[in-house]
Write a structure and sequence with these properties.
The chain is α/β, with parallel strands linked by helices. It is built from nine helices and 15 strands. The strands form three sheets. Strands 3, 4, 5, 6, 7, 14 and 15 form a seven-stranded mixed beta sheet that branches. Strands 10-9-8-11-12-13 form a six-stranded parallel beta sheet, sandwiched between helices. Strands 1-2 form a two-stranded antiparallel sheet. α3 packs across α4. The longest helix has 14 residues. The radius of gyration is 19 Å and the shape is globular.
Length: 323
């Protein structure tokens, strides 16, 4: 089968299209013929080994341990293991694949039975591939970590990207009143997704507007931690999901210091694999409460171009790779 292979760390120019062995499913696994995948920040970080400590964790020190990137998959079931009961050959599925570190930028990928669900019929493979990792991140940040309640005021920083575009829609579906902070060119898109208000982060500093929020989701956070805390209600919550390493460290440190003190709270997010959450998102998609926002689509052969675009500017939604 053909796959995009990353044999060394670096820019998108290190990505090469190659023929590799097609994987075979274990008895509790499903082999998916991948029809589409999408780029997430984890893929870009793994490709570049940025930050450097990735080499000590998921990646190898001198070269990538996972040579095929991609964690989102949408496609058809090609084979099933002997103990698989939930799916049959030919089923259209989508999911966030973690068991084998994804490896979805390829014509075939392995999934655990717990990692995938049936694709909503109304969605194309490209649309479905844009959903899993980004939407689950937004859902767990808002509902589980942020404890969002109907009627609460929510600020989403980085509201037009992959996670942010889902966060705007999910927050609205959960009853939140959303302010979207994004670039000027993406403000209209944020409003169309359901934000009640949109601000250009280059011109308006939310932390000095004098407005306060019940929940702030920092998707691509770069302010000092005190700026976020100043913009919170007395019992407000800040959820940090990605962004500047400095902010992530500040959030983790301040969270520990504030535990048990009451009042404002800080949470950091580490995405959990959850079939139940994927089914919840499927329901929102089928009801039309959430729709994937796709900035651009590239064929597998042009995966490097897709990454160059991902790195060049703030994408409006997700960038998809089709097989």
């Amino acid at each position: 089968m053909k796959a995009i292979v990353c044999d060394r760390y670096g820019s998108p120019s290190v990505l090469v299209l190659r023929d590799v062995d097609k994987p075979a499913p274990a008895e509790d696994e499903v082999l998916i013929r991948v029809r589409a995948s999408s780029i997430n920040s984890r893929d870009d970080r793994m490709m570049r080994a940025n930050p450097f400590f990735i080499r000590f964790r998921a990646g190898g020190f001198f070269r990538p341990r996972t040579r095929i990137l991609g964690a989102d998959a949408a496609g058809t079931v090609a084979e099933i293991g002997a103990s698989v009961k939930s799916f049959k050959v030919g089923d259209e599925v989508f999911g966030y694949l973690k068991r084998h570190r994804g490896r979805c930028f390829a014509e075939y990928a392995l999934a655990g039975e717990e990692e995938i669900v049936l694709k909503p019929a109304k969605l194309s493979f490209e649309q479905a591939a844009a959903v899993p990792l980004a939407a689950l991140t937004a859902l767990q940040a808002l509902r589980d970590k942020g404890k969002l309640r109907p009627g609460e005021k929510v600020l989403i920083q980085g509201a037009s990207g992959g996670v942010g575009s889902f966060a705007v829609q999910i927050a609205k579906a959960l009853g939140g009143e959303v302010t979207a902070a994004c670039s000027e060119r993406n403000m209209e898109a944020a409003l169309c997704l359901g934000a009640r208000r949109a601000i250009d982060y280059r011109k308006t500093d939310f932390s000095r507007e004098g407005r306060t929020y019940d929940l702030i989701l920092a998707v691509n956070g770069y302010h000092h931690i005190d700026d976020y805390l100043r913009a919170l209600e007395p019992d407000g919550r800040l959820v940090v999901s990605g962004g500047a390493i400095r902010l992530v460290i500040q959030a983790a440190s301040r969270k520990k210091a504030m535990q048990g003190s009451g009042g404002k709270r800080i949470e950091t997010l580490s995405l959990e694999q959850s079939k139940e959450d994927l089914l919840f998102m499927k329901g929102l998609l089928e009801e039309g409460k959430v729709l994937p926002l796709i900035d651009a689509s590239f064929t597998l052969e042009r995966a490097a171009d897709a990454f160059w675009l991902y790195e060049k500017d703030h994408a409006r939604g997700k960038i998809v790779i089709t097989m």
